[in-house]
Amino acid sequence: MYVSGLIAYSGSAVIGGLLAVSLLAKYDRRQPAFTFGLFLLVIGFWAATYVGYLVASTEAWLLFFIQLSYLSVVTAPIVWVVFALQYTDRGAWLSRRRLVLLSVVPAGVLALVWTASYHTWFYAEMFVRTVDGVALLETPPAIGHRINIVYSYGLLLIGTGLIVGETVTNNRLYRRQSLVLFACLSAPWFANGVFHLGFQPIPTADLTPVVFVIVGIPLAVIVQRAELTGFVPIAHERVFHTLDDPVFVVTTSNRVLDANRAARRLVDADGDRIEGSDLNTILPEPLLEDGDLHPGLRESIECVIEVDGTPHQFIARLRGTERTTQADPRGRILSLTDITVQKRQQESLEAKNEQLERLAGVVSHDLATPLATGEGLLHLVRADLESPSAEIDQSLADLEAVHRRLRAFAEGLPALARESTDVETPTDCDLETVARGAWEVVDTGDLYLLIDSSDTLRADASRLQQAFENLFSNVAEHAVDGQRGATTVRIGRLSTTSGFYIEDDGPGIPAGRREDLLAFGVSTGSGAGYGLAIVRTIVEAHGWSLSVTDGADGGARFEIETVPHAR
């Protein structure tokens, strides 16, 4: 019996330690599998102390190994409760303060155990007796020992109760996993209970750590090879089933592991169990092709599916298809995102934008006729006046300027309508690439472009380039008309916020005129006054903001602050 006990405890210590190290190295400390590895480490240490107990021969060493074993005895119930809370998705309860409170009684027990030689509060007495040539330490329990039993079993019952509560879940996969866990872990607690009731195959030696390691082997295998790659909190259903969009969890052979309520409604199985069903036999036709899953699901597909008799538009995608071997047990997820409302809003917005552009085109066309008439009449008036007075000539010149501005307004109106529509499909654009593309289009004369820094922007590249073209044209115009033209245009990222700037070293813009220049029809030179207004319109269509300030070298600086494009 002595030899067999020594082998049992030694083997349990080694196996428990190896399993623990495997789990602790593989999983994050916030995962239940990590805590289960910590639990096995505690149990392995418990078994190791019994190896020392069996080889000891004096009362002092026998007591020392019993005292050492209590490091595991008082720790195991706490770790068990932590594991149960994590496993049942109640990890938020585990605050540092509560863990400290849970440790108060175990700390007191340890203090009593390690001072047991000086009092009778934990053991009523201690004496050595020999059984088959093996020295054993008899320790009849006292009040401290009984308190520890009550407290430890209280924690064990709480943790076990949490897990038992999850065995009533409607999901067969999770119910089976919880039942296996409960069945395996009931055995060692039963062994510990009968030990305290006096059934001791090896006198004064508790077989609990041995039984724990024996059942820990299949449990560790479950952790390593479970279809969900480890212990997944059962209570995730409280979140999973409240998702509005359908989600299927499937095996690599397309067998359904789980489906939330929205998915069950989609396949008209709201009241039926679909776990274990072949996904290819229950999915709507748009998600299938030739009796198998649509190949486009590996990326994503857009489809229309009827739900409760109403057509809905979805984006469907099969995730987790990057497995490396056929033996990989990880499940995959088929998710469908309902975009019906977004599609309707997009179609409505597109219709309004088209209507706005048509209206702008009609107004522009209708303005052309009276403008042509006015310009023709003005031409006739000039032809009839051989030598008009200076006042009349100035009035006619002013009228021609009005005609030119009206003509520019009529021609620019469609562009303003088009640029004012929101950007719906932005793409990644390189700031420098767009700026240089605009620079090549505009006649910038002797101006020099300097890129201080670049950035990646989410934008409509063609409309962004149009904004740059208008800004470059504005600088070039003042390089000709101004008393001191600009020589350099600089572009770069803003240092204090997200966005970019365009500045020049020209005469600049007076502070009192900066806001007005961004309005329609206000010009800083001989232009029609729509260039900067279009720039502002394009910037705002991206959901950005535009401001004008002084440049580093005294010129004008346009700062565009970008914000996430929420659509």
> Which regions have little confidence, pLDDT < 50, spanning 5+ residues?
224-235, 323-330
Give the neighbour order of strands across the main sheet.
Answer: 4-3-9-8-7
Q: Biggest sheet, in brief?
A: 5 strands, antiparallel
Please count the helical segments: 17
Shape: elongated
Helix content: 40-55%
Distance between the termini: 74 Å
Number of strands: 16
Structural class: alpha+beta
Could you characterize what this model shows?
With 567 residues, this protein is an alpha+beta fold. It has 17 helices and 16 strands. Strand 13 and strand 14 form a beta hairpin. Helix 3 packs antiparallel against helix 5, helix 6 packs antiparallel against helix 7 and helix 14 packs across helix 15. The two termini are 74 Å apart. About 4% of the residues have low confidence.
Short description:
This protein is of the alpha+beta class and 567 residues long. The chain has helices at residues 2-26, 32-55, 59-87, 96-102, 104-114, 143-165, 172-196, 208-225, 237-240, 261-266, 279-282, 340-384, 390-419, 431-441, 461-481, 514-517, 531-541; strands spanning 127-131, 134-138, 247-250, 256-259, 288-289, 292-293, 301-307, 310-319, 332-338, 427-430, 448-451, 456-459, 488-493, 499-504, 545-550, 556-561. The longest helix is centred in the middle third of the chain and has 45 residues, at 340-384.
